[in-house]
Amino acid sequence: MGRPEPGWVRPERGTAALSRFMIWLTLRVGRPFGEAILPFITLYFLLTARQARRASRQYLARVLDRPARTMDVARHFHTFAAAILDRVFFLSGRYRGYTIDINGLDCVHAAMAGGRGCILLGAHIGSFEALRSVGRMSPFPVRVLMFRRNAGAPTRLLEQLAPEFARNIIDIGEPDAMIRVQESLARNELVGMLGDRAPGHEKSVPTPFLGGVAAFPAGPLLVAGMLGVPVILFSGVRTGYRHYTVRFELLADQITIPRGRRAEGLATWMGQYARWMEGLCRAHPYNWFNFHDVWVAPQVGKHGGEP
Fold first, then answer.
1. Is 307 a member of any domain?
2. With contact defined as beta carbons under 8 Å apart, do 193 and 120 qualify?
3. Does the residue 108 lie in any domain?
4. Does the entry feature the keyword Cell inner membrane, yes or no (predicted)?
5. What's this model's pTM, rounded to 2 decimal places?
6. What is the domain count for the chain?
7. Cβ proximity of 107 and 249 under 8 Å
8. What one-character-per-residue DSSP string does 238-302 give?
9. In this structure, is residue 132 part of a structural domain?
10. pLDDT tens column, 75-130
11. Domain span including residue 129
C-alpha cells in the first residue's frame, strides 16, 4: 500500500441528490432562497468540519494578528459559502446584479502579444469563476489546469451548469496533462492554475508566509520555468455583496531557475508569490479558502489552535 494522501485530498462533502436539489431550487426560486440558507450551511460546517475549522482558526490568527474567535471562523465559512452561491449564478450565466471590476488586462494583452501563450497563476483566494467570467469576454481561450480527483457531487454538478467550462479543464491526474498544456500555449492560449495547494505528495517549498513557514507546491513554478512563457498573477476577490475585483499583474516575462541552484531559484520565485498572496490575505482576510494546514513551523506567538 502507498502512503496515505494528505488530508485535503478527499472527496468533497455533499450527496449528488441533495446538491442537485439545492442548486435547482436556488436557480428556480432565486438568489433570496440561496442567501436565506447560507447561515444554516455556515453553522453546519462550523459544527461538523473540525479540520477546516482548525485550519481557519490557525490562518485567521496569523492574518488578523490576534487570537481568532468563533465568530471570525463563522465569517470565514460564510464568505466561502457566499462565493459558492455566486458560483452557481456565474456558471449558469446569470450575471445580472453583479459588479466585476477588472484591473491589469493591459499586462495580459502585452504578454499574449509575444505569441507564446501565458500562464495565469493564482491561489484559493476569492472566486475562480470571476476569472472565468472574464474569460468569456477574452479573445484568448482560457484553459484551467486543476486537480479533480477529490471533486465530489457539488463540484461536478456545478460544472454541468457550464459544460464549455468543463471541456476547458486539463486534469492534473491525466497522463497527457502536460502535453495538453504545451499544446494550449503553442496555440497562444491562457492556462490558469493555482499555486497554494499541492496534490498528492508533490515537492513543496517551505516559504515565509504570514509570520510562519508554509509549504507551497513547486510544480507550478517548475512548469512555468520549463515552458519559458510569461507568468501573470491573478485574483478574483469578493469585495462586497455581488461585487468582485479581478486583478492581473505580471510576475515574470519568463521564470528562470538555474539548474545548479534549483532550490535557491525556487525559493526566490516562491517568496515573490507568497508576498503577493500575503498582501491579498491582509487586505481581504476572509477570502482565502484554503481550509487545510499548510504550516510547517510552530505557530509564532500564542495565537491560533483549536479550543
1. no
2. yes
3. yes
4. yes
5. 0.85
6. 1
7. yes
8. EEETTEEEEEEEEEESS----GGGHHHHHHHHHHHHHHHHHHHHHHSGGGB---S--B-SPPSTT
9. yes
10. 999 999 899 888 888 877 788 888 989 999 899 999 999 999 999 999 999 988 77
11. 16-287
